[in-house]
Amino acid sequence: MSFMDLAKNRYSCRAFSGKNVEPEKLQQVLEAGRLSPTAVNAQPVFVKVIKSAENLEKIRSITRMAYNAPVVLMVCYDESRCYTAEKYNDNFQSGIMDSSIITTSMMMQATDLGLATLWARGFNASEIEKAFKFPSNEKLACLLDIGYADPENGGPSPRHPVRKSMEEFASEV
Ligand SMILES: Cc1cc2nc3c(=O)[nH]c(=O)nc-3n(C[C@H](O)[C@H](O)[C@H](O)COP(=O)(O)O)c2cc1C
What we know:
Blueprint: H1 3-9, H2 23-34, E1 45-50, H3 53-62, E2 71-78, H4 95-112, E3 116-120, H5 125-131, E4 138-147, H6 166-169
Antiparallel strand pairs: 1-2, 2-4, 3-4
């Protein structure tokens, strides 16, 4: 599939079928994340994989944003390893941006493999960090739910096709 077709096919899935994610496919998704760029190649991002019944139950008890996905990736970064732009007298810290590109790569790789995904950040991250015993330097950026779409209920939401016009989105300055 071309990248443009992938971009057109991807949508947020909020209902997954009972089918598990094959281990080889999960490895490919993680590899796409591992190969993604980070600021000054500091690589502060890492992924904690949730797929055991016990951990799925734990995450679902904290947030409904894990839905019924058989795999939930916690995309995390080590705050102490992020690039900062201090020498430019700027408060920038790369953790969320680094995590975002890694999540994007994994999301698109999953889509290419026929998997469905949901990028989620609608929760209190510190509750999840506490439940999964994160050390204080480790932060949760977002969740990436992965599985196969439930053919009956797992289609795109009405919000999916709503996008700004190209004129609103990009303009020459
Ligand atoms: C940073 C970010 C956070 C998001 N958080 C949530 C969330 O917590 N729950 C949810 O159901 N969808 C979440 N989404 C998915 C968006 O709602 C979705 O991408 C948007 O409505 C467009 O729909 P589409 O992905 O189907 O094109 C999030 C997406 C992004 C990029």
